[in-house]
Fold this protein.
Amino acid sequence: MKPVLALVGRPNVGKSTLFNRMTKSRDAIVADFAGLTRDRHYGDGRLGDREFIVVDTGGFEPTAESGIFKEMAKQTRQAVAEADAVVFVVDVRGGLSAQDHDIAKFLRTTGKKVVLAANKAEGMAESPLLGEFYELGLGEPHPVSAAHGQGVRSLIEAALADFAFDEEDEAPDQTDGPIRLAVAGRPNVGKSTLINTWLGEERLVAFDLPGTTRDAIHVPFERNGQKFELIDTAGLRRKGKVFEAIEKFSVVKTLQAIADANVVLLLLDATQGVTDQDAHIAGYILDSGRAVVMAVNKWDAVDDYQKQTLQRSIEQRLAFLKFAPLLHISAKKRQGLAPVWKAIADSHASATRKMPTPVLTRLLLEAVEHQTPKRAGMFRPKLRYAHQGGMNPPIIVIHGNSLEHVTDSYKRYLEGRFREHFKLVGTPLRIEMRSSRNPFDEK
């Protein structure tokens, strides 16, 4: 399970800049004025072989009692409750403030591991200005510069120091075990109803294991001889440990469950349409390379016009998942559930399909004969042979010359040919190009 690091601090101390630096992305909007970030923002980070989830939060004002600042404080408390460790970001150049003391007081009550990041400290690693931050009682401040990347690596190492990374857990793609199925979706789409319906209809092989605040529940069960392991992303709350304001659905639990799964069932709500959160979860599934099945719940609760509108919305906003089967169900009335199981099995079979090298090479040469890649200046890419480079998701590695000039549209053309032959459904397919070295380059 990936550890979760939450970035917390008062407005305009550089949390979003640090988030972008830790995730090696530009996902969080950055500008030189306070209060830009309001909602929680999630991203993936990696340090060597260690992967983790980073949560960016808005400026934290623990004492805010009304308005937008109260809502932002609620979002931050949620992020801290979800986190395994908290990175408390302060501004060295701005100095220590009363608000920093309020935040430190709150963090001490949570019992979470806290790492103090003294941001905007470029060229100030030995500065006496760092000394005043010892007042917060949170240990040694780590001088960093999020804008320039200085000290960020050592900060992440300090935050991850207490977590054991089990290498065996990083291989979720074995084909001989049960199919690990994660049910993902935003709040109130009917995840719990669907899971309860399944467990009520199908014979449950084993009871769910006890979970903790951070763990997803793994429920083993069997259907028609096929073993599954259901990863419930609805999340558990340990009574007394987490305050009542926390929503039952946790984005972190969903991201972790997706990373652990073989197949993800993305549940949409027919009455609400496709929201930004649906698209965000769908994008994460695609980035993770997981096989995916889309199911629209509450299909019986909408009229024909709403159904047509929803269909167009899915085609537009989730176009990048066009390879995924789309099913219409009603978990409450137990309608349309049987085809879901077939789609899940088909998607898993596609994700773990073995593609022989001779067949791939023949398909590649036939595709080139039918349509050659476009010439780039003096060079026309020469595609020679292909082999399978991995499963779940399937990776096809193509070898040849000048392959850096192969266009994205031509890669999509090749992907379509491979998909059609191997009947791949419900799984992303990745194509990697590897050019041979020209022996005359150095002469």
About this structure: The chain is about 30% helix and 20% strand.
